[in-house]
Design a protein that fits this description.
Rossmann fold, NAD-dependent epimerase/dehydratase domain-containing protein, alpha/beta, 11 helices, aldehyde dehydrogenase (NAD+) activity, about 15% strand, single chain, NAD(P)-dependent_oxidoreduct
């Protein structure tokens, strides 16, 4: 299989590139000029410099590909336009380039549970639920899906919607492990709040299935990890166990967390440093639940997540230590 990965230098892109290379597939990575490709070291791949927000850079990347895995996206931004320009319009530019290529490569778009917004503690989201994004990032991912499927008469399109992803190389959950290392376990009052999570290699597995399975075309799939949902507190407990620590619990009210997040955003704006805590993060943490069902992927694709989430956290902690991040 000849495969292009946009966002190949990121956490998920790195793992997907490794899996494709291990299978002997031909891998092309779209990377921004000067973009960090250290996670791809040792892999055989073709580098194409480009950016999904610059349409003129995309035709060479998509030429001759069987599958395009579209992972590139913005997770942080100061304005709604920052997210829309990359996540939504970048998807449109890529689809236009694929149509112009003339040979109908399959598009596997990596969406997000964020497009659907929070769930309730008792009912996980299913794919038939309407989009109700919680913030600009989720709004832009919902729009990216709409754009991608609008090309369904010209391209075979499928979408994967992961929840929060765990595994070596992940930066999103690192702050919680850093708190445990400092002897702090954060507990939010009014909880616990269920979280569906998934190992990065399980996400790679479903992306590879969606790249070839005939039942994937025209469909979106949640990618849920095995077992019951976790919670912020449980993730911290598992991280502390992996670190061999027993942190003290610090209980924080929603009002205090919001105030801290507002202050953190102020510091970020003044200094240019992107702090782990933000109003966006606080809003995510205070939602009643972020859960989704993997039943559709199991039914139509035969997908079964294989990686135990406690082991994912142990592997992550080990990797963080090896890299000097903890």
């Amino acid at each position: 299989m000849r495969a292009l990965i946009t966002g190949a230098g990121g956490f998920l892109g790195m793992w997907l590139a490794k899996a494709l290379a291990a299978r002997g597939d031909s891998v092309t990575c779209l990377l921004r000029p000067g973009g960090d490709a250290s996670g791809l070291a040792g892999l055989t791949y073709t580098r194409v410099e480009g950016d999904v927000t610059v349409p003129s850079t995309l035709s060479a990347a998509v030429a001759g590909q069987d599958v395009v895995f579209h992972l590139a996206g913005a997770r942080r931004g100061a304005t709604r336009d920052d997210f829309m320009r990359v996540n939504a319009e970048g998807t449109r530019h890529l689809c236009e380039a694929m149509v112009a290529a003339g040979h109908r490569p399959r598009l596997v778009l990596t969406g997000s549970l964020a497009a659907c917004g929070p769930s309730t503690p008792t009912r996980p989201h299913v794919e038939e639920d309407a989009f109700h994004p919680h913030e600009w990032y989720g709004e832009s991912k919902a729009e990216a899906e709409r754009i991608a499927f609008s090309y369904g008469d010209r391209l075979p399109v499928t979408v994967s919607r992961p929840p929060r992803i765990l595994g070596p190389g992940d930066r999103e959950n690192l702050p919680f492990f850093k708190m445990a290392q400092r002897g702090i376990r954060l507990e939010l009052s009014g909880g616990p709040r269920p979280l569906t999570m998934v190992d990065v290699e399980d996400v790679v597995d479903i992306l590879l299935l969606q790249a070839t399975h005939p039942a994937a075309i025209g469909e979106a799939f949640f990618c849920a990890g095995p077992g019951e949902p976790l919670s912020l507190e449980k993730v911290q407990d598992l991280g502390a166990q992996a670190l061999g620590l027993t942190p003290r619990t610090v209980r924080v009210s929603p009002a205090l967390l919001r105030a801290m997040a507002t202050a953190a955003d102020g510091v970020s704006q003044l200094t240019g440093r992107k702090l782990a805590l933000s109003r966006k993060m606080a809003k995510q943490l205070l939602a009643p639940a972020w859960t989704c069902s993997g039943a559709k992927a199991e039914r139509l694709l035969g997908f079964h997540p294989q990686r135990d989430l406690a082991d994912s956290i142990r592997r992550s902690v080990q990797w963080y230590r090896e890299q000097g991040w903890l």
